[in-house]
Amino acid sequence: MKRKLSFLAILWWLLLSGMLGIGMLLFADRASVASEDENRMLAAFPSPTWETLRQGGYDEAFEDFLCDKFLLRTQILNAVKAAKHVFSALSAEELLYGDTDEEDELLVEIPEEEQTVTQQTETAASTEETEQQPQETAEEAQGTAEEAVAGAESDTASVWLEKRDGTQTALLTYSRAEVQSAADVLSAYAEALPEGGAVRALFAPRAQTANQFALHTDTVDGWSSDVESMLSAMVSDGVEVYSAVDILGPHILSGEYVYFRTDHHWTTLGAYYAAKALLEGAGYLTVPLESYSTALETGFLGSIYLKDRNAKLKSYADTVTIYEPLLPASSFIVSNAYRKAELPVIDETQTGYKAFLGGTHGPYRVLDGGYQTGHNALLICDSFGNAIAQFLATRYDSVYMVDFRPAYYSREAADGSVTEYIRRCGITDIYVVLSESDGIGTRYVDTLMPENLK
Amino acid sequence: MKRKMRAPKGRNEPENRETMGSETVVWRQNAAPVGGPPHAETDRRFIRRALLWSFAAAAVLVLFCYVVFLNLPELKEVYVKHLIERGSYQSAQRVIQSLEPGEETDELQNACYFACAGAYQREGGYDEAIALYEAAGDYPGAADALDECIYDQARIFESDGDYPEASEKYAQIAGVLDADERREACRYAYALELYDNGSYDEAMREFYALGDYLDAETYARESAVALSGNVGAGDLVALLAGLTEEQLAAREALQAAREALPVGVVATGYQHTVARKRDGTVLATGSNRYGQCNVSDWTNVSAVAAGAYHTVALLSDGTVVACGQNEYGQCDVSGWTNVIRLYAGAYNTVALTSGGEILSAGYVSYETQSWHDIADLDVGAFALFGVMENGRPLSTNQELITDDFNDLVAISATAACSAGLKAGGTVVTNGLDADGLTDIVAICCTENGLFALDAEGSVHTRFYRSEDEIDVSGWDDIVAVSAGATHAAAVTGDGRVLAAGDNAKGQCDTSEWRLFEP
Fold first, then answer.
1. % of chain B with per-residue pLDDT over 70
2. Among A78, A208, B313, B453, which residue's beta carbon has the most beta carbons within 10 A?
3. How far is B36 from B14, CA to CA, in rounded Å?
4. What is the pLDDT of residues A67-100, one digit of tens each?
């Protein structure tokens, strides 16, 4: 009897495995899908070629496919991660700011001498309050100029967290070479534009960085950055550099909800302020935020939560505000400078940040806001661009978007360089809106942008 | 190598015997059972049956899964309905989101919204309920339930003494039950409240807006007197409008100058231009992608207007015709009658009737129930703007109206830019430098700037960016001007049509046109 049962068990095991395998091969998504939760591409069903079969690459690719597409994979992974953190000793704050080791590397205390100088300056300024306004203004201007010169001559540039005790902590630090490299790339893009066009660049900190300020306004005075001044000094005339730190800082200080807590993106409010600054810099007025009707999604747990799925972060759940387009807006995938399949502008089937434009799509996409202005723009971005695009679109007939990350972009799919797109799509302005993950000193700026320009 | 089957330990059978159950198998030296295995046939039969039944069961399972797979949407729909009936709206929503988009899914979604809205309404969550009823769209009963919900909420506001909110809510459901009467009552109560609190300025305006409702007119006069402190202080209307007699005189002069100008004689769309000839026919040039230039058979036209991709015309009998893009219903104007003024926005058509009613067709729905005494209108990108007879601005989007928008005779706006023509012939804008613009009789705001026509027939421009400038410096003797983002057109006193700006689609090819002989 035992033998018979064993036989039956093995037989059914084989049958079910076979059925599962066949079912998966028949019904699983064979295409390569970008997983924004895991920030990578999930493997596609491999195409057998003689070369891959002979060298064993096909087996590996097939294994990857099986690993990425097995039944209930997401649920199982979620459960495993949740179980892993049941006894986690990490605090909610440590989780919000990301990997603590990584952050430790970024936190660079300024030398004591500099601190002393800062404190002395503040003291001196406070004792001279009785001086006349014009003199103060002149001194401020001089100070600013000196700072700019100092910034331009320094070997590094940083985004600083200004604490109320008078000390500073570097949140992000870039070397002169990294900034120079970014400046060269931006200048090259400006050269590709027709006369009168401009490149407007804005590098935004991620929420993990910004929230070290936003969630500590009791102990933090603000933040400052000398990155943009260094970059501005290096770029050509056709490039305008905007400081996300300066634009968003006052709003953060006043307690506005500019960054998510459990997601690395800015909120739509943060994106709006950035768009407003960019458009006003270009000489345009923006549509007032109050003009939009809104939809709210509460309980959003974003990428920071999804990274570890630690239940401690659930109390920090975010609210996503969706600003409904005011005019008939539409979006399409663009390849070879032609419009292809239609994409959503606000994807109500998606939750959280993915609702904006339905997430990132490549190789190019276009957003028509329904406005008629006689201008077209190109937005070079990462996922931070998805929230800002609709606000930029109020000033353009069409906003073309490209995210050069390999998960979304390939030169073959784009079927044309940026220069060709500028010419064929009538683009007059370029906006570069990138988060720190894809900003200065990253492969995105140093490699992907230059290699796709021409 | 020889294999031997060993007997179980503790048993005394010889090594070539094996006992299984009640039977004993005798083995040969080479390990094969003596005389053939007595169970072989049974085992084979078992294996055959097991395989047969297993594959049959697997086939049935596959078939079942296939049937389930084919009917999964239907099963999910049944499950969603069950969840909705049970009141588990969030679970239902999750299941709905997993369904493929389509009419059935939309129907389920609307049913879920509708049911959830009902639950909110029963618990007094009117804001949530209203949002959900609106989201339910054309679901059976949703529109009525929405009206009912707004009405209930308005009644609560009213009973709480929050008259402005109540009035606004009643305005949203004009015509439903006694909403109109209650709205008037709320406005009157609010005006009385203002009057009692000494806010005579606001009270005066509220009473004035109420017209002949109860004793509103009397209260309006009393408010005006209280505000001025002088029983015989000037003309009541001037007081109500906050204008001086000089301002009234200037207003009358400007209005006379404007009435002398031809109305609806030229219009610019995004990439097309249309103009009305004196004989009632219409000329068009530029992009005809949506058929917006198919106007050759129009006759008896008394005014033209152009949206982004459509053209509309007011006929002498007060009806309206349209051509071009109708994706959002902007050309569904065939039933309009008694129209005296016609306007077009990017995706909308708006008309003012002889009875003072505002008709609208197109993408945006405007909330204009409370508008009255309208002197002029303008369709912005997504909002409607107007000017009252007393010079006060009206807008469905107050964000573009700044404090200095008063004493107006005309208004013009787009998505982010707005401009008002003041009774004194000066111009106010929400961002452009309007200094030096004096003696202006007509304005036209575009996405990129402002065109202002003065009494001498010159056109003045202001642009946000120098790159967007359209050169009209050579234009003179102009009697009408219209402008879009990238091109502008104007009619001269001798009937010619001048055009400048982008001519990629031939929208500026108007040099041959002659609308009338001087």
1. 89
2. B313
3. 19
4. 887 777 777 777 777 676 666 666 666 666 654 3
The residue of chain B nearest to residue A22, with distances taken between CA atoms, is B62
Q: How far is Cα A305 from Cα A98, in angstroms, rounded to an integer?
A: 10
Burial call A324-345: b when 16+ CB within 10 Å, e when fewer: ebbbbbbbbbbbebebeeebbb
B425-460 residues labelled b (16+ CB within 10 A) or e (exposed):
bbbbbbbbebeebeebbbbbbbbbbbbbbbbebbbb
> Please, what is the Cα angle at B350 between B346 and B355, to 5 degrees?
170
* Position A352, amino acid: G
CA-wise closest residue to B372 among B256, B206, B123, B484: B206
Query: CA-nearest residue of chain B to A348?
Result: B97
- CA geometry: angle at A37 spanning A108 and A356, to 5°? 95
B374: CB partners within 8 A, 6+ apart: B352, B356, B358, B386, B387, B388, B389, B394
| Number of helical H runs and strand E runs in chain A | 19, 16
Q: Which of B46, B112, B325, B382 to mutate to test the interface with A (most CBs of A within 10 A)?
A: B382
Tens of pLDDT, residue by residue over A285-311, are 889 998 898 888 888 888 888 877 777
The verdict on domain B257-501 having CATH code 2.130.10.30 is yes
A297 touches chain B (CB under 8 A): no
Cross-chain residue pair B415–A326, CB shorter than 8 Å: yes
A371: closest chain B residue by CA: B381
- Measured between beta carbons, the chain B residues lying within 8 angstroms of A349 are 97, 101
For the stretch B33-77, pLDDT in tens is 555 556 777 888 888 888 888 888 888 888 887 788 777 788 888
CB–CB of B99/B76 below 8 Å? yes
What letter would DSSP give residue B496?
B
What is the spatial distance between Cα B421 and Cα B452, in angstroms, rounded to a whole number? 9
What ipTM was assigned to the predicted interfaces of this complex? 0.70
Do A286 and B416 lie within an 8 Å CB cutoff?
Answer: yes
Q: Chain B 317-346, CB below 8 Å of chain A: which residues?
A: 327-328, 346
DSSP-derived secondary structure for B418-487: EEEEETTS-EEESSS--TT--SEEEEEE-SSEEEEEETTS-EEEEESSGGG----TT--SEEEEEE-SSE
- Residue B385: helix, strand or coil by DSSP? strand
Cα gap B508→A195, rounded to integer Å: 23
What integer is the mean pLDDT of A331-342? 87
Residue percentage of chain A with pLDDT more than 90: 33
β-pairing verdict for B282-286 and B408-413: unpaired
Q: What is the CA radius of gyration of chain A?
A: 25
Cis preceding linkage at B8, omega within 30: no
Question: What number of CA atoms fall less than 13 Å from residue A366's CA on the CB side?
Answer: 23
